Description:
minor pseudopilin epsh fold, 5-stranded antiparallel beta sheet, single chain, 3 helices, about 30% strand, alpha+beta
Amino acid sequence: MAYFLLSFWPMKKFAFSLVEIVITLAIVIVVFYISLPSLNFINRFILQNEANKLFSVFSFLQYRAIASNKEQKLFFDLKNKCCSYNKSKRKKILYKVPNCIEFGFLKNTKGPPSSPSKKIIFPITFKKNKKGNYFVTFFPNGKVSPGTIYLVDKEKRFMVAVTCPISKISFIRKYRYDNGQWICLK
């Protein structure tokens, strides 16, 4: 009997109109754009990528100093958010930090990352020359002048550091600041 009743039941065909599809897509797009600024992983990823780039520049100049048996220097320009080094006497190679990243630090953070004991008061702790530019020196024996550079995202939620600690053997390290602690990145 039930089969007999279902066979005469009017069957509806399901289809979507173009207006329904457009409204659904509009709602999805609005929700996506509202939630986009809160997607922290994007800022964290970009910041981590910048630390990797800066780490690569440091490593390159360290090996270049060893190979050429000449000192290499990396200069930081805080105002223009870039750093440069001399490739030859005429050319300067620039590394520009993206607009969403800046040289800086989170408020009330302690550093240096390897043994945080003092409040960070400036984003670069390397030496300063007479022109007021901060710089890192890479020596032919493989040593690197000690110091740290801190990078933050524009919203100042995330921070990373590239550091060259004082030691008999120079090495370059990357750190990420997470939940009040420095985490060494490999």
